[in-house]
């Protein structure tokens, strides 16, 4: 007895080919499967990059997005290359490398445009807008956020709408227009909840809490942050959780609960340090030092550490954050009326 002839060299997804398949067909099929494998590799590494970034495993995220880009380039697939660069640009922003983030996100936008992927185009444009806002380029950021919101509403893209609304609301909050900020964060929260975007909801809740606490409604703000914290912990959103804790510190500070504020800022600072996020680390450290000053710490020690924090920020591109530290130093130096 003997079995039917087969070609053991045709393996995996190619095992369906017969031993009698002509070799031109074998070659074409193998090449197509190779392209498919590279696309799958690019997609898998993109997912790995984003998961690692959000978990705070930044070196792994760096390796994964670069691997995704190389696999996409080998296909070649411009849309997949755009997604990889979007991931790399977002990671660069998280690490405080804002100029590099703008460069990579802009390149991702251009690749997405050429590749015809409107979703990747929107994500990349949103990334540029958010980076400009963090860098302090508020006018440019607003123009891009408005453009994003118009496009997102036209497409009915839930996550894009939420992202754009939150960006505009944050700009309004920074400008002191709390009514407009509340309106933006509130709409973002409702759309995120209706659309099942829990990550977007967590960020919107944080924005709402900020506005409420600025209006003196501290207990209501803490309740919203508690809800957002549950989402962050359930989804392992390391960066979002750290920012949630930092905002809780802000609310406690505004309510004059300085001891609890100091403990919360310290917790946030440790979380930011664990994921190597310099902007969040600086903001949490700033809040901690201001809280300790209110608790009676010697003023000279606080001023010394604030100057050290300011000087460390010179190694990053966080102009807006550095300005906040300088304003804290100026406030300490001003005579109390």
UniProtKB/TrEMBL annotation:
Against InterPro entries, the record matches this protein to: TPR-like_helical_dom_sf
Q: Which Gene3D superfamilies match?
A: Tetratricopeptide repeat domain (1.25.40.10)
- Entry-linked Pfam families: TPR_12
Family matches, as SUPFAM superfamilies: TPR-like
* This protein's name: Tetratricopeptide repeat protein
Classification lineage: Bacteria, Bacillati, Actinomycetota, Actinomycetes, Pseudonocardiales
């Amino acid at each position: 007895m003997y079995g039917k002839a087969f070609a053991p060299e045709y393996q995996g997804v190619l095992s369906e080919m017969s031993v009698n398949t002509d070799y031109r067909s074998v070659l074409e099929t193998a090449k197509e499967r190779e392209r498919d494998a590279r696309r799958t590799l690019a997609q898998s590494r993109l997912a790995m990059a984003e998961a690692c970034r959000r978990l705070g495993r930044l070196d792994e995220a760096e390796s994964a997005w670069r691997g995704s880009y190389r696999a996409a380039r080998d296909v070649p697939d411009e849309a997949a290359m755009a997604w990889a660069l979007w991931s790399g640009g977002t990671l660069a922003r998280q690490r405080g490398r804002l100029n590099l983030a703008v460069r990579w996100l802009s390149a991702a936008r251009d690749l997405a445009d050429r590749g015809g992927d409107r979703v990747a185009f929107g994500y990349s444009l949103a990334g540029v807008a958010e980076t400009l806002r963090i860098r302090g380029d508020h006018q440019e950021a607003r123009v891009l956020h408005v453009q994003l919101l118009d496009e997102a509403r036209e497409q009915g893209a839930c996550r894009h709408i939420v992202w754009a609304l939150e960006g505009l609301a944050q700009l309004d909050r920074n400008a002191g227009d709390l009514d407009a900020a509340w309106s933006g964060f509130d709409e973002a929260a409702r759309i995120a909840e209706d659309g099942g975007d829990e990550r977007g909801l967590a960020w919107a809740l944080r924005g709402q809490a900020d506005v409420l606490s600025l209006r003196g409604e501290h207990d209501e703000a803490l309740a919203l942050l508690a809800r957002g914290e549950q989402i962050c912990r359930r989804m392992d959103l390391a960066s979002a959780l750290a920012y949630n804790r930092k905002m809780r510190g802000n609310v406690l500070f505004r309510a004059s609960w300085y001891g609890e504020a100091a403990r919360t800022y310290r917790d946030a600072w440790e979380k930011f340090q664990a994921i190597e996020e310099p902007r969040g680390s600086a903001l949490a450290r700033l809040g901690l030092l201001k809280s300790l000053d209110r608790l009676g710490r010697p003023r000279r020690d606080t001023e010394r550490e604030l100057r050290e924090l300011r000087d460390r920020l010179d190694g990053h591109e966080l102009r807006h954050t550095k300005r906040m530290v300088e304003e804290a130093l100026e406030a300490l130096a001003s005579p109390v009326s």
